[in-house]
Amino acid sequence: MVRAVGWTGLAKIIGQIAMFATTLLLAHLLDKADLGLFAMAVLYAGIVDTVTDGGFQSAIIQRKDISADSLSSCFWLLTGISLSVVAISQLVAPWIAAVFAEMRLAGVVRQISWIFLILPLTIVSSGILSRRFRLDVIAKAELGACLARCAISAALALAGMGIVSLIYGYLAERIIVGFALARVARWKPSLRFNYRNVRPLISFGLNVTASRLLWLGYSKMDTFIIARFLGTEILGMYSVASQIALAFGQFISAVYYRVIFPLLSKSQDSPNFKEILLASSVYLSIVSLPVMVGLAVVAPDIVSVFLGEKWQEASLVIRVLSIVAALQILSGLLPQAMNAIGRADISIWINLSSLIVFGVSFYLGVQWQGLNGILIVWLILGPLRSIANVSIACALLQLPIAEYMRRHAGSFMATLIMLLAAMAVAEATGTWPAISRLVLSVSFGALAYVAVSPLFLRRPWVELFSVLKISPKATV
After folding, report:
1. What is the mean pLDDT of the chain?
2. Number of domains present in the structure of the chain
3. Residue finishing a domain among 205, 225, 242
4. In angstroms, rounded to a whole number, what is the distance separating the alpha carbons of residues 52 and 87?
5. Is the dihedral of CA 82, 84, 87, 92 positive or negative?
């Protein structure tokens, strides 16, 4: 686990820095409308990705034993699904564009849809490597692909290629990842297909897919509503702000969740399962909460320094979404735990309720206050969803809510003190240049967090350090 987290974390940090720098460059070179148009296409691609995956990757990881014939059968079934999805995407592209009221979207959807052909190879290879706990290898492949995407997108944007720079960079990244993982996994499908071998994977995968689709619908409903009613320019601003606000959360999901799910799956019958879950969740909150809350404090200065004055309206979006993301981190590992014990069906009902409630609320919010209405909905319903998630998951896992909250109280209190320190510095330096105010706010906030950690976080820090001192050879 230490090796996997270390390599995955390092790769993702480098990748996030590269993507952040590329996003800033593209924000200066491309129109907001182009960025919004690409955000619409990526939303469609995300939905199709989830449908095509069918939950097979999670099913491959979650199964205690899986045969070579099952893997081959899974690959050929996914190949058939991918071919059908590409053909359907070519036909329905104009209808998709009509839904978003943006006819240019049809051409972008048709170009992006070809990437679905590489999904079967990526899904099976990634599942195999995850079962072997070779998550470090996956991270290295994804890092190389991410850097290639950044280089291609930046080069084409500088050449004046517009939205094509975003499309080609995206396609290149996905192709590189698929072939790299297949090569490292050293797996090739046989020509045999047996439905009986793949049926158990389908049963578990359908629940995971339904849950992911509903979660995707709920989490991207704001993007759809903005695209439909406020236009591509506002969506372009919102998508860039979202990338900044949620960058660390996406980093966590790509690093920590990827490691935790195989670990919890392997430990599902262990008497230490609950302690593994609790300790992992506490470690996550120690690192994540101060980053997300601190981002909310310095959002205006980040926008001024990195994006420029024309993007100032993005600072409010960053603040709201980073606060919501901070609260969601407290319940972030619980869905992983439920999936690990084979109860993905619980997440279906949680995400279905969220899709309905958030969808209706976003529609009413945008009609009432435009973009501000979207942000108000996030501030009200986001925390309520996190509370419901914790309550339901703790009941299912027979984990006392009081114990869950007590274990997270230290990181919450330390983060609160850090917040007050950063806000005080930002207020005291209000007339200073943005970059000076940003550096001082971050520095004093970090110092405050480190200073109070021995008081509120002594036990988890000691545990975490003891884990990190274990040599890789000793864990084999």
Report:
1. 82
2. 2
3. 205
4. 13
5. negative
Spatial contact of 172 and 30, defined as CB atoms under 8 Å apart: no
389 to 326, 374, 383, 407: CA distances (angstroms): 14, 21, 10, 17
Phi-psi region of 54 (alpha: psi -120 to 50; beta: other; left: phi over 0): left
Let me know if residue 255 belongs to a domain. Answer: no
* Local structure of 86: helix, strand or coil: helix
Question: What six digits make up the tokens of 322?
Answer: 């980073």
What is the spatial distance between Cα 112 and Cα 167, in angstroms, rounded to a whole number? 7
pLDDT per position as a tens digit, 148-181: 999 999 999 888 888 888 889 989 988 998 888 8
Beta strands in 78-170 (DSSP E): none
pLDDT tens string 428-447: 888 888 899 999 999 999 99
| C-alpha–C-alpha distance, residues 223 and 242, integer Å | 10
- Write the CB contacts of 398 (distance below 8 Å, at least 6 apart in sequence): 274
Q: How many CA atoms lie within 13 A of 431 on its CB side?
A: 0
Going by C-beta distance under 8 Å and a sequence separation of 6 or more, which residues neighbour residue 219?
none
For the four alpha carbons of 315, 318, 320 and 323, in that order, the dihedral sign comes to negative
Q: Which residue type does 308 have?
A: G
Q: Coil, strand, or helix at residue 312? A: coil
Residue 254's CB is within 10 A of a number of other CB atoms, namely 18
Contact present, 209 and 55 (Cβ < 8 Å): yes
**87 lies in some domain:** yes
**DSSP conformation class of 31:** -
Cβ neighbours around 232 below 10 Å, total: 25
Percent of the chain at pLDDT exceeding 90 = 12
Instruction: Give the ranges where 303-432 is alpha helix by DSSP (H).
Output: 314-329, 334-340, 344-369, 371-396, 401-428
The token pair at 398 is: 């027979």
Question: Is residue 195 located within the same domain as residue 278?
Answer: no
Q: How far apart are CA 174 and CA 169, in angstroms?
A: 9
322 touches 298 (CB < 8 A): no
Is 439 within a domain? yes
What is the per-residue DSSP string for 386-415? HHHHHHHHHHHTT--HHHHHHHHHHHHHHH
State how far the Cα of 261 lies from the Cα of 250, in Å rounded to an integer. 16
